[in-house]
Amino acid sequence: MKITCFNGSPKGKNSNSQRIASEFLEGARQAGAEVENIFLVEKKIGYCRACLSCWIKTPGRCIQKDDMNELLEKCVRSDVVVFATPLYADNVTGILKTFIDRMIPALEPYVKRVNGETLHLKRYEKYPRIVVISNNAFPEQTHFQTLRLYFRRLARNMHSEVIGEVYRSAGEVLRAQNPLLKPVIQSYKKLLRKAGEEIVLQGKISAKTKKKLEKPLVPPAQFLKGMNRYFEKRLERLAGKGSRS
Ligand SMILES: Cc1cc2nc3c(=O)[nH]c(=O)nc-3n(C[C@H](O)[C@H](O)[C@H](O)COP(=O)(O)O)c2cc1C
Fold first, then answer.
1. What is the mean pLDDT of residues 203-214?
2. Is residue 70 part of a domain?
């Protein structure tokens, strides 16, 4: 099984998205998958120009000379793609959305109706199944409502299905150096490896693992205190610097 992760965080290798994805991919690798981890921020990917050349003049290929044709090939040749993104304004990052917009050469221009709704025909026989990894700042799982729906819609349009979702609220906790949080983070990482393994061996994340993965890392009240203290300190430091100059 080939699994390719497309990481849409501007922080790339130093992102919380990567902290989560790397454990998930390691679990998948240990279960026998071939894994590849791609940081979209390091790639040259232009906006879709809506010229439709990829459907008319050069079917299946975009005319832009950037990294996208190669990335799209990697995507459609995978059995599973992992979209790993921080939550930005309740959605995926612009980096990931630009990548997703550029996926349209993977479809035919022709359309049909399925279950009362129109969609484009397949260009390929098989499309990768989808795993979503996202993390955000706030401590509630409800912030991922848009993503849950968005990736289901995307999967439908891409003749695919969402087979796993890892939504990590209060994801900034994963970056924390506080030794008291270390055991919590370690056991969360272990669960992520289990989720990766389950995707390879069972084709889904079990309900038990999913439930454990969605447990809060810290109580919301502690989170609020921590976040407000963090910004208070940063603003104070800046004000201190300002008054010295
Ligand atoms: C432009 C921007 C928009 C954001 N929007 C949200 C948001 O809507 N909800 C939320 O809970 N966190 C939001 N965040 C916080 C990030 O999701 C959070 O810091 C996350 O841990 C970053 O993950 P990364 O390290 O993988 O990039 C936003 C951050 C930025 C910079």
1. 98
2. yes
Residues 129 and 160: beta-carbon distance below 8 Å? yes
Q: Which residue among 15, 88, 134 has the greatest number of ligand 1 atoms within 8 angstroms of its CB, and so is best to mutate?
A: 88
Question: CATH code at 23?
Answer: 3.40.50.360
**pTM value?**
0.96
**Residue range 43-71, pLDDT digits in tens:** 999 999 999 999 999 999 999 999 999 99
Q: Is residue 170 part of a domain?
A: yes
Flag whether 50 is in a domain.
yes
Q: Is 64 in the pocket of ligand 1 (CB under 6 A)?
A: no
Q: Which residues span the domain enclosing 87?
A: 2-217
Length of the chain: 245
> How many Å is the maximal CA-CA distance in the chain?
67
Structural domains in the chain (count)? 1
Hey, CA dihedral for 113, 124, 205, 187, is it positive or negative? negative
Is the CA virtual torsion 30, 79, 21, 219 positive or negative? negative
